[in-house]
Amino acid sequence: MTISFNRKNWIVWAILLVPAVLVPIGNWHFRSSLPATAAGAITSERLMPHIRYLASDELEGRLAGSPGAEKAARYIAEQFARRNLLPLGDEGSYFQGFSFVSGVRLGSANSLEVAGGMGGSSRQAGGGSVLEPGSDFTPVSFSLSGEFEGPALFVGYGISAPSLQYDDYRKTDVKGKFVFVLRYGPEGDDPHGQFGRYHALRYKAQTARDRGAKGIVFVDDSEDFSKSTLSKLRFDRSFADSGIAALALSRPSARKILAGAGLNLDTLEESARSRKGSAADMPGVHLKFRSDLVKETRSARNVVGLLNGNGDLAEEVLVIGAHFDHLGLGEVSSLAAKPGSEVHNGADDNASGTAGLLELAGALGSRKGQAGRSVLFLAFSAEEQGLLGSRHYVNHPAIPLEKTVAMINMDMIGRMQGKRLIVGGTGSSPGWKDLLTQLNKDADLELKYRDGGFGPSDHSSFYGRDIPVLFFFTGVHGDYHKPSDDYDKIEADSTARVVDFIFQTASSIRGMDQRPAFRKTAGEPRESGRTGFRVTLGIIPDYGEEVEGVRLTGVREGSPAAKCGLRSGDLIVGWSGKKITNIYDLTYLLQEHRPGDEVEITVVRDGGELQLTATLEGR
Questions:
Q1: What's the total number of domains in the chain?
Q2: I need a surface site. Which of 166, 483, 498, 525 has the fewest CB within 10 A?
């Protein structure tokens, strides 16, 4: 049940009888009585027990949807209750539930029958050889589900790269056929080589699909399929399939099938490496493939609590948030040497921010009777899966978003180096820098401002809805997304210092006589370290919605996307005549362009299709 902010049984409005002095900060004023007696209210002695518990092995890394994350959510709800926050979750609780696709598993009906190959060495059925799932083949996690049948064709590495004078598909008609492709590229498995950006399985599947292939068969590069990564059903965190049947085939099985067509796998591989593209007919080979993939869903819960304001500003809301989930055993985004084998406790990411959230609730709640805006405290789940918790909240707000004047986000605030504190979103409202600079006269921190409102944390979801944001962050370190991000590495005193500065900031925003104005930021920093990208479009995809296409949660100001008329909420479904079914399709197409290229983008908006023309810019 969504609870209306204006319901009097939830909120008791009070009027502050003591007049407040207004002090100018830039174009704003804030009530000087709000932060005056609260300096030092945040202490390391109060913060560290929260971090110690949230980052303990008992919670097993707090993977969204896991028992450990549920324990963390209950702990946060208990702390909200102790601080007398009003529950604004589902059915009068502190919890706001949502579900998400967390993986994929094999159903019971996966099968592969091959006619015209295998030399009669496999189990026979209906005139063909039946291969065994798991030992001979396995569906790829992004395969279409269903039954597929057609002839086969070998197309080398399945790469079409005209700019490199290499094309396995040249002069080859693959429509209605299964294409057999080798792993990686002509240079081997080197990800930094000129063919490195073409290695991805989804990229090869998209190439085959766009040429009309019925299905794609990835031939393993290892003689022992059981030890190969291709034999494992790996979920790549995209809800959408690739639009084509896709399976991985053991090398021994591929060798037998090709031999049945009079071809030698090793000879074909050598030819593919030495030529500028390679293809070979597989006469008489016919595949009948059934893919039975089942999406697995998990349930997760945000934790939502309200501190009532007082006076004429009380109907407006300041949101303060932090995500409490992490990587579990490394199932998601781990940078460990052996993901999936060790608990990733996430002391800094983001037990530190969650502890700050709890202590801010206590410190701000202790200022009862003073005039100011209400404060909504949000602990988000599934941030590591793509900001899913915050995206769910802005789509299903407990309080109408037009009441939200600003959002403060804390993520990784426990490892400050010296006095350096990074503050993102400072360009999202005209007065942020003046306010922070004024408050820092007492705090004496080394503030590093980043104007952009979008970023890799939950404030992005709010900025995408035209809400001013501030993002507090002490920086990435060597333990990021590794099991070594543990409690004993948290800088206790500096963490308390950061949270105390955020307390002063939040207190000031609560008392400003005018709500902060929203401003879109230009000149967002470019992503770096990714190979193959020469251009940018300037979109912010919504990873939390299960759609065929790419839903946008925002566009960067001044970007090609903004200039051509793309908007938040648009669904991109086409790109210069090619179908877009998922974010991978769009990513791979962007890799093929140069600055100055014009592209036709098909979007669905308000139930109708639009054609927009974008001119891509360099990164």
A1: 3
A2: 525
CA contacts within 13 A on the Cβ side of 282: 32
120 and 94 housed in the same domain: no
Report yes or no on 530 lying in a domain. Answer: no
Q: Which CATH number is 267's domain given?
A: 3.50.30.30
pLDDT at 26: 40
Same domain, 279 and 304: no
Could you report the per-residue pLDDT of 521-547, keeping only the tens digit for each? 874 444 433 344 578 898 888 766 678
Q: Where a domain ends, among 225, 259, 291? A: 291
The alpha carbon torsion through 526, 530, 532, 536 (nearest 10 deg) reads: -20
Task: Tell me which amino acid residue 218 is.
Answer: F
Q: Are residues 372 and 421 in the same domain?
A: yes
What's the CA gap between 569 and 423, in Å, rounded?
Answer: 27
**Helices within 142-200 (DSSP H only):** none
Q: How many CA atoms lie within 13 A of 13 on its CB side?
A: 12
Q: Which residue has the tokens 């080394």?
A: 446
pLDDT at 16: 22
Phi and psi, residue 482, nearest 5°:
-125, 160
pLDDT value for 239: 63
Q: Which residue has the tokens 């210092």?
A: 497
What's 553's domain CATH number? Answer: 2.30.42.10
3-state secondary structure of 350: helix
Q: Do the bridges between strand 95-106 and strand 146-154 make them parallel or antiparallel, or are there none, so unpaired? A: unpaired
Segments of the chain scoring below 70 in pLDDT: 1-40, 117-127, 237-239, 523-533, 543-545
Greatest alpha-carbon span in the chain? 93
Question: Is 535:590 a contact under the CB 8 Å cutoff?
Answer: yes
Q: Is residue 528 part of a domain?
A: no
- Examine the domain organization and report whether 265 and 308 are in the same domain: no
Q: Of 384, 379, 431, 385, nearest to 409 (Cα)?
A: 379
CA-to-CA distance for 409 and 424, rounded, in angstroms?
9
Three-class SS state of 474: coil
pLDDT of residue 32: 33
Verify that 488 and 576 share a domain, yes or no: no
Closest CA to 157 of 276, 286, 289, 282: 276
Spell out the residues 6+ positions from residue 526 whose beta carbon is closer than 8 angstroms to its own: 536, 619
445 shares its domain with 576: no
Q: Give tens-digit pLDDT for 285-330.
A: 999 999 999 988 999 999 999 999 999 999 999 999 999 999 999 9
Host domain of residue 92: 23-101+299-511
Q: State the CATH number of the domain containing residue 79.
A: 3.40.630.10
In a domain, 70, yes or no: yes
> What is the distance between the alpha carbons of residues 326 and 542, in angstroms, rounded to a whole number?
20
**CA-based angle 332:333:338, to the nearest 5?**
85
Contact in structure between 168 and 160 (CB atoms under 8 Å)? yes
- Amino acid at residue number 160: S
Nearest CA among 109, 199, 102, 98 for reference residue 157: 199
- With CA atoms as reference, report the closest residue to 72 among 272, 306, 325: 325
For the chain, the residue count is: 619
* Shared domain check, 468 and 542: no
**Nearest CA to 410 among 484, 360, 463, 468?**
360
